[in-house]
Amino acid sequence: MGIFSKLFGKKPHDPAQALIDWLDTHPHVCRRTVASNFGAQDPFGARVLTWIVTRPDCDRGTAAEAFWKSMAFGAVKEMSSHREDPAAATPSLDLISLISEHWRQGRYGPAQFGCETEDYWQEFCKDLRRFRCKARDFDLPDGIRDPISGERFYQQRPVDHHEGDILDDLVGDVWVCDRAIQVPEYGLPARKARLGY
Q1: Per-residue pLDDT tens digits of the chain, which is 197 residues long
Q2: 98: nearest Cα among 70, 135, 61
Q3: Would you kindly state where each structural domain of the chain is located, as residue ranges?
Q4: Angle between helices 60-70 and 43-53 (to 10 degrees)
Q5: What is the DSSP string of the chain?
């Protein structure tokens, strides 16, 4: 942060758009890295994730990773809550529905990156029992449960170290802004320390 930012504070910005703008000019591998960092429940992170899975060049492995991560960490609870309160927010279900629609329409290209679905499936089944839901409630698209072969990595950094540092900073900005919304007592001081506002 520059001297004027330290003296006068940095103005609030849109960390999701800053990350999207950067990703738009960098290789697809960076998108996969970012997709593994965010969840549908993250206000800014979800915007980045949605942008990634709606790109024309998004591959099946990246889409499946986002799908199962959302399914295993929030979707079943949201389905249960939605039954009791139809007005309840359903960010994970919304993202799953979007990915399912694209998947069925064949919009995702061949897998560049793999997705091991078994662990996610086990978490999904545990949540089904816990929240008394059924798998058929989710209308899974054909083939999305199958393991997807491809590169077996999750945290791949750009080859250029400087570019990797920029990516880490942008992801960190999104993360701290999400925490400021979700857990203000911890997130607001962290955002102030990192971004100056």
Answers
A1: 444 444 455 568 899 999 999 999 998 888 988 988 898 999 999 999 999 999 999 999 999 999 999 988 889 999 999 999 999 899 999 999 999 999 999 999 999 888 989 999 999 999 999 999 999 999 899 999 999 987 655 455 666 788 889 999 999 999 999 999 999 999 999 999 999 99
A2: 70
A3: 10-156
A4: 150
A5: --HHHHHH-PPP--HHHHHHHHHTTS-HHHHHHHHTT--TTSHHHHHHHHHHHTSTT-BHHHHHHHHHHHIIIIIHHHHHHHHH-TTS--HHHHHHHHHHHHHHTT-SBS-SB-B--HHHHHHHHHHHHHHT--GGGG-PPTTSSS-B-SB--S-PPPSSHHHHHHHHHHHHHHHHHHHHHHSHHHHHHHHHHHH--
